[in-house]
Amino acid sequence: MKRDDIGELELLRQEIEILKKTNIQLQEVGDDLERENQLLKTILDSIHEGVYATDEKGKIILYNREVEKTEGLKRSDVLGKKETDVYSYISENNFYEAVTEKVMKTVKPLIEHHYKYYLPNGKRNDILINAFPFFYQEKLAGVYTVGRDVKTIGEFISNTLVMQRKLTMEENNPANVKGARYLLDHIIGDSKEMKETVALARKVAGHSSPILIVGETGTGKELFAQGIHNASLFAKGPFVPVNCAAIPDSLLESILFGTVKGAFTGAVDIPGLFEQAENGTIFLDEINSMPFSLQAKLLRVLQDKVVRRIGSKTETPINTRIISATNVDPFVAVQEQVIRSDLFFRLATVTIDIPPLRERKNDIHVLGHYFIRKFNDKFGIFVKGISRDLIKPFEHYYWPGNVRELENIIESGMNFVEHQDDELDLEHLPMYFQERLLKTKEISKYMPGIQGTLRSNLQEFEKRLIYDALLRNSWNITRTAQELGILRQNLQHKIKVLNLQKENR
Ligand SMILES: Nc1ncnc2c1ncn2[C@@H]1O[C@H](COP(=O)(O)OP(=O)(O)OP(=O)(O)O)[C@@H](O)[C@H]1O
Ligand SMILES: [Mg+2]
Question: Are 64 and 52 in contact (CB under 8 A)?
Fold first, then answer.
């Protein structure tokens, strides 16, 4: 063989090697894609929502197991077929026109759409769906729909209400220690702010006006709600808490107001939580998460003191104290149209603001020692207290999770105190928290030229930060509070305490 031939052969061999490698890589990518595809298919088939999709021509391209179950059809019989060929459209308002085409035309989702249609065997189906357009390579490529059988929703609501009724009855049974077990006396706090807040709560507990409790997460809103209930004329009645953020929007109305048989498939005669709270207190937690449309109905309940079960023609008068709570600034929520202003004024006949823990340093001491005693009793140990070295960084820490965070940290640290009568110290706390405390301490390093205690430095830093933000926002309180991520009332309080004035500096 000639030299040139050998050279070419070698080149060819190298090319083959490269092609082989590329092939292996492509195969790996293919394997990964296949695995991901398989995983997604498995997930789609294991969820309780029906998922269904059509391409831009109305051809069915996705049909999960839940849809198979509710429609009684086989995936293999519908996939690849046109929607209009699969379903018999007795009603003029068919799925294609009512949903698919609408979403394709408007390129906007359809949310919480109640849709009734007929299956090929003539049976009627009721579903509650959300339908969305989907895009491929920036082009509209079809519509996907996620939905639930209304019958299962009805059953779910009934089960939830029955369960809640049982719970309410159990919890409000005096022989049971659960339920609204906190009294206002159980609220620990030595600071002027906390004493004033508890005094206000005690004063308004005796009236029947609605109360809005505002405070960051972990400041004790639920504690106050229970305390007020127990100090009120409604104390003998039930305390019914509802977390508006935890209940799906589409169910909240039925859960609050109840349903009557026939209101929709699966609906039964059952009182809602308002009726369950008769002669007691209903605690509407995270009220800012309540859908806007439902807020209008709640406003009517507050004004007329009657509720109407869904599907009912009659109204039932109610005698229930309403306490609501929010951990977002309600003024901002009203401004951003998350809370209706008319509802807000009704709910907030009395407002109780619970200050964050960082603003009541005294309480860090008393609460800290209170939690040490609590966990000593619980664990059967004798931790003496909190060391001086730990109390200092505790005072300067920001406590974003407020009292709950303090309680959790103390509980966690007490597990690591080795000798019975030692004090709780920095080294007992989880590593991540030790690091956080140390970082807080380092802030003063960023303020060269300023001397004195960490507390005075922090205050100076806070003052500067707030003043600059106020200037930037032309002293608009709502905007400044938003920028600083604090409640409007907190900002007003700080302006007063730090003595900030427009002509300052
Ligand atoms: N002043 C206090 N005295 C004693 N315990 C308190 C106090 N404040 C809060 N706690 C405790 O802190 C924890 C959190 O309180 P709670 O659940 O009432 O807070 P929350 O404001 O409702 O929080 P979230 O907004 O996260 O729901 C609870 O274990 C509660 O007992
Ligand atoms: Mg709470």
Answer: yes
Ligand 1 mean position, distance from CA 402 (Å): 8
Pairing relationship of beta strands 316-317 and 270-271 according to DSSP bridges: unpaired
Residue 70, φ and ψ in degrees, nearest 5 = -75, -30
Indicate which atom in ligand 1 lies nearest the CA of residue 189: 1
- Centre of ligand 1 to C-alpha 494, Å, is 23
**Pair of tokens at residue 345:** 């004024």
Fold held by 454-497: Arc Repressor Mutant, subunit A (1.10.10)
Kindly identify the ligand whose nearest atom is closest to the C-alpha of 406. Answer: 1
Paired sense of beta strands 316-317 and 306-307, if any: antiparallel
Residue 143 near residue 131, CB atoms below 8 Å? yes
The percent of residues in the chain predicted with pLDDT above 90, rounded, is: 44
Mean pLDDT, residues 109-135 taken together: 82
Phi, psi of 195 (to 5 degrees): -60, -40
- Residue among 404, 407, 487 whose CB has most ligand 1 atoms within 8 A, to mutate: 404
CA distance 421 to 192: 32
CATH number belonging to the domain at 359-441, selected among 3.30.1330.60, 3.40.50.300, 1.10.8.60, 3.90.1150.10: 1.10.8.60
Which residue bears the tokens 């802030």? 443
| Residues with a CB atom less than 6 Å from ligand 1 | 187-189, 215, 217-223, 327, 403-404, 407
Residue 306 scores a pLDDT above 90: yes
Question: Which of the ligands is closest to the CA of residue 222?
Answer: 1
What are 55's strand-pairing partners? 142
**Which of ligand 1's atoms lies nearest the C-alpha of 223?**
18
Taking the CA atoms of 304, 305, 307 and 308 in sequence, report the sign of the dihedral they define.
negative
pLDDT tens-digit map of 359-412:
998 999 999 999 999 999 998 889 999 999 899 899 988 898 999 999 999 999
Classify domain 47-150 by CATH number. Answer: 3.30.450.20
Q: Max Cα separation, the chain?
A: 108
Q: What are phi and psi of 116, to 5 degrees?
A: -115, 135
Residue given tokens 């600083």 in the structure block: 484
Complete DSSP assignment for 314-364: S-EE---EEEEEESS-HHHHHHTTSS-HHHHHHHTTEEEEPPPGGG-HHHH
Is residue 489 classed as helix, strand or coil in its secondary structure? Answer: helix
Tell me how far apart the alpha carbons of residues 398 and 437 are, in angstroms, rounded to a whole number: 9
Q: Which CATH number fits domain 172-353: 1.20.272.10, 3.40.50.1110, 1.10.510.10, 3.40.50.300?
A: 3.40.50.300
What pLDDT is recorded for position 343? 95
